[in-house]
Write a structure and sequence with these properties.
Helix content: 40-55%
Strand order of the largest sheet: 1-2
Number of helices: 19
CATH topology of one domain: Cytochrome Bc1 Complex, Chain D, domain 2
CATH architecture of one domain: Orthogonal Bundle
Oligomer: single chain
Keywords: Cell membrane, Electron transport, Heme, Iron, Membrane, Metal-binding, Repeat, Signal, Transport
Number of strands: 6
Subcellular location: Cell membrane
Protein name: Alcohol dehydrogenase
Pfam families: Cytochrom_C
Distance between the termini: 108 Å
InterPro entries: Cyt_c-like_dom, Cyt_c-like_dom_sf, Cyt_C_IC, Cytochrome_c-type_DH, Membr-bd_ADH_cyt_c
Strand content: under 5%
Length: 445
């Protein structure tokens, strides 16, 4: 009898242990599988990174999305707004409809129009389902911060907001509606480039009303290059000389993932885009963007590609070129970019046949020489290489000489640069640690 009781107790204990194990396994499975709400928040977080929201809505040293970043415009400075879920200073009191009106229509909750420094003409293409996910993330996945918003530094009457409503009606497109999902790579890439990625906000030239001259590939001006913050955001179309004509889809993916490839390295605002946004995107989405960009025809179709010319390399090696530009290059640039102009792949960018070097507008090259540049840090390429600025070392004329030399060497065929071009760029530097135009460089004093 005792044996039978012990046997029953043993069986019951085993059953209890098995039930507890099953309960624990089920709990672990449920914990591992996020709820529908959590999935929506996670989706929104990904979309916020794809849209690079943190870059504009975070001031230097500030909390993420708490706003306060100064954004220069032709009429003055505006400051990005607090988009954390703080109810007083942020968007905590926004309904999903309020959020949608701000994001895609450019209208604040109080009915005032937003400055188009907020790229709502691009975000107009964001689908309602993605707006819903973004709203869930900003309300549930972002920490509220009570940082107050700053007023604009724009003099009256330009500071009046009512003309912005007219601007919206003239230049802002109709917002997208939900429709059949088409995730084919080309369509997906177009959606990301033209919409959330808002690539045109920097890479498309602007008209007299400061509107993007094109919002889609209906015009060859779309993504043909635009000046922003003193840099030229490069032509992203199929031009072989100053665009992506010589880049493969894999080259574009590598650049967006790591901030560098065999053709170039990210600098200026694009370094921030890679660091904050594109490095976190999936391979599928990056490949889709690359496929779409490679589908864009050249602005100047029929222009032949440039070919490498070794004459400059040999002249520098022999010392037969004693021109001011050549000497400035040897003294300041050759150690990293080499006398061949080819640099060191994915370390120090090539200057030979570079789209940045051969751009019609030399703004980026001048700015990099003056201010220097630093590659972004990424998970796939954690080593950061930097170039020092030469604003305090070289005069305007010396910078013009070396930039002109670079733009006409190793097969490059770009126009010359003069000292006045450099002087204009120098005035835009955040810190005026420079020498006066025409004075001797520090190295010779």
């Amino acid at each position: 009898m005792t044996t039978i009781m012990i046997k029953h107790y043993f069986i019951a204990a085993c059953a209890a242990v098995m039930s507890l194990s099953a309960f624990t396994a089920a709990a672990q499975t449920n914990a591992a599988a996020p709820s529908a709400d959590q999935q929506l928040v996670q989706r929104g977080e990904y979309l916020a990174k794809a849209g690079d929201c943190v870059a504009c809505h975070t001031a230097k040293g500030g909390k993420p999305f708490a706003g306060g970043l100064a954004i220069a415009t032709p009429i003055g400075t505006v400051y990005s707004s607090n988009i954390t879920p703080d109810k007083e200073h942020g968007i905590g009191s926004y309904s999903e409809e309020d959020f949608d009106r701000a994001l895609r229509h450019g209208i604040r909750k109080d009915g005032a129009s937003l400055y188009p420094a907020m790229p709502y003409p691009s975000y107009a293409k964001v689908k309602p389902a993605d707006v819903k996910a973004l709203y869930a993330y900003f309300m549930q996945g972002v920490q509220a911060d009570p940082a107050p918003n700053r007023g604009v530094d724009i003099t009256w009457p330009l500071s009046m907001r009512w003309p912005l409503s007219v601007w919206r009606k003239v230049f802002a497109p109709a917002v997208a509606a939900d429709g059949p999902e088409d995730n084919s790579p080309l369509v997906r890439g177009q959606y990301l480039v033209e919409g959330l990625g808002h690539c045109g906000a920097c890479h498309t030239p602007r008209g007299v009303g400061m509107q993007e001259k094109a919002l889609s590939n209906d015009s060859s001006q779309f993504l043909s290059g635009g000046v922003i913050d003193g840099y030229l955001a490069n032509n992203l179309r199929g031009d072989a000389r100053d665009g992506l004509g010589n880049w493969s889809e894999a080259d574009i993916v590598a650049f967006l993932k790591t901030g560098r490839n065999s053709h170039s390295a990210a600098f200026g605002g694009m370094a921030d885009v890679v660091a904050n946004s594109t490095q976190y995107m999936t391979e599928g989405d990056l490949s889709a963007m690359a496929k779409y960009l490679k589908s864009l025809k050249a602005v100047k179709e029929g222009t032949p590609a440039l070919a490498y010319d070794d004459k400059t390399h040999q002249a520098l090696r022999k010392g037969s070129d004693q021109s001011p530009g050549a000497m400035a290059f040897l003294n300041n640039c050759a150690a990293c970019h080499r006398s061949s102009g080819k640099g060191y792949e994915e370390t120090f960018p090539t200057l030979a046949l570079s789209p940045t070097v051969n751009a019609e507008n030399p703004a980026s090259l001048i700015r990099i020489v003056l201010e220097g540049a630093e590659m972004p840090w990424t998970h796939k390429a954690p080593t950061q290489f930097a170039m020092p600025g030469f604003a305090s070392r070289l005069s305007d004329q010396e910078v013009a000489d070396v930039v002109t030399f670079i733009r006409s060497s190793w097969g490059n065929q770009a126009s010359s640069v003069n000292a006045s071009d450099v002087a204009k760029a120098r005035k835009q530097l955040p810190e005026k640690k420079t020498v006066e135009a025409g004075s001797a460089p520090l190295a010779k004093q």
